[in-house]
Each structure stands twice: as structure tokens, then as C-alpha cells.
Records
---
Amino acid sequence: MGGPLRFGIVGVGKISEQYFASLGRLPGIRLVAVADLDAERSAQVAAEHGVESLTVDALIAHPDIDAILNLTIPIAHVDIATRALAAGKHVFGEKPLGLTVAEAGPMLALAESAGLRVGSAPDTVLGTGIQTARQLLDSGAIGDPVGASASWVSSGHEQWHPAPQFYYQPGGGPLFDMGPYYLTALVELLGPVVRVSATTRRSTRERAIEVGARAGTPIAVEVDTHVTALLEHAAGPSSTIQVSFDVWTSRHSPIELYGSSGTMAVPDPNHFDDPVSLWTPAAPEWTEVAPTAGYLQAARGYGLADMAQAIATDRPHRASGLMAMHVLDIMESILLAGAEHRVVELVTTAEQSAPIELGSTPESW
């Protein structure tokens, strides 16, 4: 590959705005075209960014596009990715990788057989927040890791999103929507998970859209809205995670790591660069730690840029499809464990990605 990785975006909904905000500082990738089922929206976004607006089929077949950034809704992730891979394109997609391991497996197999890359959000773990936490953990800042807790709770996306129905359909819910951020961070910090147990439930609260032109429209809830799970990591530590659309407020920290000689407060893995704090017996008060690792000022799109650089230099890329597959396996296993009230063994694993030195930026690639 000579020059920037040329890519097209399929799906220019709400999340695309965060990607567009960072593209200007990522010289290793270049946007060529966009596509959306809403042709008017696609044309508007294309005009704003000086690129072509195409149909989905035309974008996937475009000879000047090397990769597809897949920002469609979860139910379409595997279909769009498979079509792009069949057309010889690399793929980086929004989370989750797919709805089930069985669905996503053939897509990853296709990529491997074709020598193509698959990457997946969340790429938030590439920022200074999670990378600093990992560097501190690996350096023994809290001793040997014993366990961790993670929590993300909300009263529901219908309070701010003008079209939130897909959050309450298969591929949504608090686990598939927000779980990937927290689970990916836990795996990057503590290593892969081997088994899970869980409790899950669906609240009786009736929901309706609360903002925008469709305010008042009822929302059909087809997923569990409150999930609590216990994870056993292959290296020995255990972690707990709670995700919910049923909690009005909470004081829980996003993630805490517990070690033999201290505790670490890990920042929100939905963000890139919030600070890490440490508490140890030698310094028995919370102390904020300056960043020691990670891409500086990272934002959505850095995972695609990291993949582009990995393709150019023939190294493994971070925010990989294999990591996303393991996280998908964890989530699917959590729901199965909750439904059947049993411990579920995972069928996948993943390696922690290579650490990122502090100061590494796409501008220096």
C-alpha cells in the first residue's frame, strides 16, 4: 500500500460525527466517499466533507477504496463487512463485531483467507487512559492483580437519542451497546476470559422516545436491560461488570483494579484520555497519575489509522477483529449464563495488543 489508506464510510448516522471530528489529524487515512440508506443524508454529509456520495453497492465496489469504515447499526455489521471483504476491502467497524460468534466467525475466516484486515471499535483503549492503566499495572504499581469491577449504568438512551429503537433490539441493550468498552478494557488489562456466570433481567418500565420529531413514540424492548456478570480471566484474576438501562443515578467508578499492594481507578473506557488514579498503603490517598502510555489526544478513528499503519508496516493491528470476537463471545456467554443460570465456558480467546508508547501519534507515522 502506497500513500494513505483510502476508505469509504457506510452509515453516516450519529456516531459518524465523532469520526469526522478526528479525520483531519489522521494523515495515514483518506476519506473517498460515503453511503447511507438515507440518500439525502449521504449527499448532505458528502457535500460537507468534499467527497462522493454513493450507494452502498457502489461504494463497496469502488476501485479507489481500500477499506470500509462500517458505521451501520449492529444487525448490519456482519453483512456489510462480509460484502466488503468479498470485494477485496479491509474493514474497520463499529462495535459489536456481530450479533453472535456463529454469525461473525465466517466473516473473520473470509478475511484471513483473503489476507485482509478486520478491525473493530472500541478504539478508546488506544488512548492515554487505558494505556496508562495497563502500563502501571504491568509495572507492578498495585502489585499482583487480584480482581476488578466495572460499572456503566443509565436510565435509557431514549432520553437523548432521536431514534433509539435499535438500542432495544438484538445487538443493542446495555450489554451490546456499552459492554464492549468495558469488556475490551478488562481484557486489555487482565487478559482473556475463560468462563462467565451472570444474572440478567428485562425491566417492566414502558419506554418511549423523549426528544425530537418522534417524541412520544413507544419503544418495543426486546433485550435484557440490566445485566450483572462475573468473569474469570485465564491469568487468574476475576472481574465483575454491571451494565444497565434501568438505573437513574450511581456513584460507581467506571473501572477499579485491585492488586496485592494497591487499588487503581481506571478512567471511563468510553473516553480516550481521562486520568488514572492510584491508592497504595505507602501513599494512602487517591493520587492522579500523569499519562505514561497511549496515543495522545486520541479520538474515534484512531483504530482505523492504527490499522492503516499496521498494514503499511506489516505488523498486527490493535483494536482487532480477534479482540472484538472474544468480547462478542463474552457478551453472548453472559446472556446465555443469565438465561440458563449456569457457568458458561468461552470458545474464543484473544491476545492483549502491543502497548503504545507515550507520544506516539498518527502525525508521526
---
Amino acid sequence: MRATVFDIERFAIHDGPGIRTTVFFKGCPFNCAWCHNPESIDGGKDIWVRQEQCVHCERCAACPEHAIKIETDGRVNIDKERCTFCDFCVGVCPVNCIARIDRDMTLDKIVEAVKKDMLYYRVSGGGVTISGGEPFQQKKAAIALLKKLKESHISTCVETCLYCEFDALEQAIPYVNQFFVDLKLMDSEDHKRYIGKPNDLILENFKKLAGRHPHITVRVPLVPGITDTEKNIKAVTEFVLSTDPNIPIELLNYNSLGSAKYERLGRVSACKDLRPLTDEAYNKLKTMVSNLGGVSV
């Protein structure tokens, strides 16, 4: 079996306990305005240009499909409609500024890659985290990979938005040590406005998962003016408390590091001017979670 991934990150320390390797599956049902991994959204083949690395040799302009245009300012523009992903441009670029961002891999190759750090997992209590995108967009591959990891005695975490059939989650449960669940917006209309889908399925799946798995952490990305409102944080906390008061809630300050990725993809970030919350604002929201009775981490 094969999976399409866009990255395998070694020595990750924010994706679960210990030192971990994070496998990022490509494809996501959402289109969050603030997404810091925009290369994960589309599930198929894709390519980008690291304009900052370009040496302007213009070798890529010889594209056999005439899909590449060199702009007057020297920027490389790839017409995704004409591109056939023949990898001509990738091969002739002398500094690797043009790169494919989809990797079609067998599950055995993924397991082989993550096993390189088995010693670090054992020493630190780490393991492998399956993320995305949304890993359950590739349901069969994600479940099969989790099973293979468990058979190799590797601790597993899954980062998920829960926008999937519950059957996928249920099949994965025996092979997952910890779930990290994104709860972004509690108002369904706001969820649809900023993310592209209503949140009914997510909340339903959360309640079901909480009744079947003992280790869940809720994560809330704090996007200024969108998800970081007191109203939203209060609603998230109260929902979690009504489901299981022991489920911890982790507030994640806004991360603006993904802005450069939009440029590489030839897109404009809708949130490029946003900045992380101040320590005072961030701590105020954490205190709110605790004061409401939530387990804040």
C-alpha cells in the first residue's frame, strides 16, 4: 500500500511526548484562511518554487510543456494547468529551488524511514506522529501505517481535525496512543466562513471518540480576531467539559511561519499580516480555560 506525503520531519518535539518523527499526509478537507501548511491542502501532485533560492539561470524555461514563464522581475511562474509534472524543471534546476511537494511512498518505505530514530524514541519516550493535512483523507493508508508502527512497537500519535467518517477513527483506535484534536471554532457559521465546512461532524466525532479512547488532547490555534476571542475559547472549553472534564485543552499561539509557503505556491496568504498574541493576551486566555474548570496545558 502507498501513501502521498509532503514531509517526514525528524526530531519533532511539539507533536507529542518525547522526540518524534512526524509523517505529514497530503490532502485536507478544509481550506483554513490561516493554514501554515498550505502545501498540504491539495491531495494530488504539486510543485513549488523557492523564489529566494533562484539564481536566474532560466534553464527551467525550456519546459517541454511550456508551463514555465520567467517574469520581468525574474520570478519563475509555473502554470499549474499546463504542468504535467514531468519533473523536467526539477531536474535542470541547479540549486533545487523548484521542487515537488508530493511524495508517493510505500508504507514499508515510510516505516523504514522512521525506524532510523528508534533509539531516540526509546530514550525519550517518543515515537511517530501521523499528521497532515488530514491523515484520514487517506483512510486506508493511515490506518495501515498505524498498524505497522504498532507492530514495530513504536508509540503513535495522530493529529486530526475529525472531519472524516467515524469508521476511520474507530479502526485506528487500537493503534493510537494519543489523539491530538483540533477544535478551531465552535460557531458553525464561522467555521464554514473561515474553514469551508460546518463543524457538526467534528463535534459529533469528538463525542464518540472521547467515549472510546482515554488519551485525547484538544488543540485550539489562536488566530487573531478569528479563533482567539473570549467567546470562542469559552465555548470550546464548555464543550470539552460537557464531554469529558479530564480532556486537556492546549492553546496554540498563532504561527506566521507559513507565509513564505504561499509565495512558493504562487498564492497570497489571507492572514499574512497577522501576528502572534502577546504573552499577556495569551496567558489571559489560558487562565480563562482554567477558571472555567478546564485542564489547561
---
Amino acid sequence: MRIKGREISLFRTGCLILYYGIAQFLPETGKWFNIGGYLRYQLCRRIFRKCGANVNIERRAWFGSGADIEIGEYSGIGINAHIPSDTIIGRYVMMGPNCYILDSNHEFSDVDTPMCFQGHSQRRQTIIEDDVWIGRDVCFTPGRYVKTGTIIAMACVMTKDFPEYSIVGGNPSELIRSRISKPNKQ
């Protein structure tokens, strides 16, 4: 099987079938002796390009083929999250429920052609660095680069990138404040 010019093994295909057919529907992590969290992690270790230790894939997470996903240790993909299969997630990343990462938008530049016939823009990869906290219901526009130590507030629409250790919120996203304290000038 080929996806985006990349060979997907029969074993990986079997893991995808087991994930989308059974494991994604199992109880959230920590319930029923953690059987759901354990099985999702074991399958995703074999699906993703890179998968660190102690990764938490919550129920109903969608990640396409997952062939190009990289996720670092102690990170997680939230309940009902929807991420493209080429997303890179660093270490120690917390992701709340219902997060949605877009990788392209509809084209709309030709006013003489209905938008539904104009296709999509070029796909853009989202990269999330280490030690990031993403609240619930956050939506990312294509190509976001989330820097180390960032906190993204609940229901934020990430429309641009921010410096390291930012606290971001709103629709559209705006800087609330920096987590780095500034020295007092005397």
C-alpha cells in the first residue's frame, strides 16, 4: 500500500485497521485497567514514524495514515483530536480534547469560479515543540509552528505563530502574556 509516495507495510496497515476498527473506541486512558490507553499506544508505536516512551493516545483520536507523525516521550493526543498524518509533536506536550489541526484550506481567489470547484491550497505541516499545553477545542490553521513552553488557551483559533513561553488565547489568536518574567529596571 502506498500513501503520499511512501510504502506502507502490511503490518502497519494491520495496525491501522486494528486502531480505527477497535482500539479508538476503547475507554479513555486510565479506565478499565488502562486497556484502551495501552492498546492504542502499542498500535501507534508501530504506525507512527517516531513514537516516544509513555505516549498517551486518547480515544477517538484521528491521524490519517499516521505514517509521518512524530511524537516525543510523555506527550499525548487528546480525545477526539484530529491531526494530519505529517504532524510533529515534541516531548511533554499535553493536548486537550477536540483539538483540530488543519493542513490546508479551500482556495477562493477566483471570484468567477465557485469556491467548491477551486480545490485546496498546498498542504502545510504543523510542528509543536517541547513542553506545550494545548487546551480543549483548539483549532490550528495550516502550517503553525508552536514554540517551546507555549500555553494555548481553551477554544483558541491559532492563526499565527508566537515566541517561546507565550500564553496565547482568543479568536483569532493573540498573545496574552509571556511566561518569562522580565527583570526589573532600576
